Structure formats: C-alpha cells, structure tokens
C-alpha cells in the first residue's frame, strides 16, 4: 500500500448542530444521505460528514441539546469563503446567508 499523504496544515471547517424529535433520527439520516448537493463540484471542497451522538447508557443526558453534527472540510480559506458567500450555501440553507444563522431570536 502507498504511504498516506500528510494533511495540509491549513484546512477550514464548517459545522452545524441538529436536534431531532424522538424516533426521527433514521428519517433525518436518510434525508441527508439522499439529498442533492453541489458541494462535490465546488473548488477546494474536501469532504462532508454527518455524525450522530450516541448515548452510552439509556439514561445518559447531554449537557448540550443536539443529536447530530455536520462537518464540511475545505482545502483553503479562499474556497471556504467562496462557498460561504455562494449560491450552493444559500440553496442548502434555505436561501439565506451564513450570517442569518448567527442571529439569536428572543
């Protein structure tokens, strides 16, 4: 087997956290697995992950309230910023900008 290539020192990540209703996790996972995405066509895109938190015991509780974390990895800052301000981001996030997700509703 060929040796693994070392990871570049500068990578850019975007994460989102999701809470789903009880017993809706499998449906949520299927939606993510089958949804159309333009990510793979964008310059600098490396990969996407959807991770599910797993409780070790039935009565475990988490200090923070989310079930899933998504993660996109970008090769460089320029690619990351192009995605963040581009149409693919708006399409995937309901037609809005990255800044709409930073606002807190009271």
What does this structure look like?
- The protein contains 3 helices and 3 strands.
- The protein has 106 residues and is of the alpha+beta class.
- The model is unreliable at 97-106 (pLDDT under 50).
- It has helices spanning 25-34, 77-84, 87-92, and strands at 12-18, 45-52, 68-74.
Q: Which characteristics define this entry?
A:
single chain, 106 residues, alpha+beta, three-stranded antiparallel β-sheet, 3 helices, 3 strands, disordered C terminus
Write a brief caption for the model.
The chain is α+β, with helices and mostly antiparallel strands.
Which strands sit side by side, in order, in the main sheet?
1-3-2
| Helical residue percent band | 10-25%
Q: Mean pLDDT, as a whole number?
A: 78
Intertermini distance: 55 Å
The Cα radius of gyration reads: 16 Å
Q: Which outline best applies? A: globular
Number of discrete helical segments: 3
Uncertain stretches = 97-106
Q: Count of DSSP E strands?
A: 3
Instruction: Determine the structural class based on helices, strands and strand pairing.
Output: alpha+beta
The helix/strand order is EHEEHH
């Amino acid at each position: 087997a060929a040796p693994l290539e070392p990871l570049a020192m500068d990578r850019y990540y975007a994460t989102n956290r999701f809470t789903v209703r009880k017993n809706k996790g499998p449906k949520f996972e299927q939606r993510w697995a089958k949804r159309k995405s333009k990510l793979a066509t964008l310059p600098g895109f490396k990969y996407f992950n959807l991770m599910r938190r797993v409780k070790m015991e039935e009565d475990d509780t988490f200090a923070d309230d989310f079930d899933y974390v998504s993660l996109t990895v970008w090769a460089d800052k320029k690619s990351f910023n192009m995605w963040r301000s581009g149409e693919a981001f708006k399409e995937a996030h309901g037609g809005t900008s990255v800044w709409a997700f930073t606002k807190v509703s009271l």
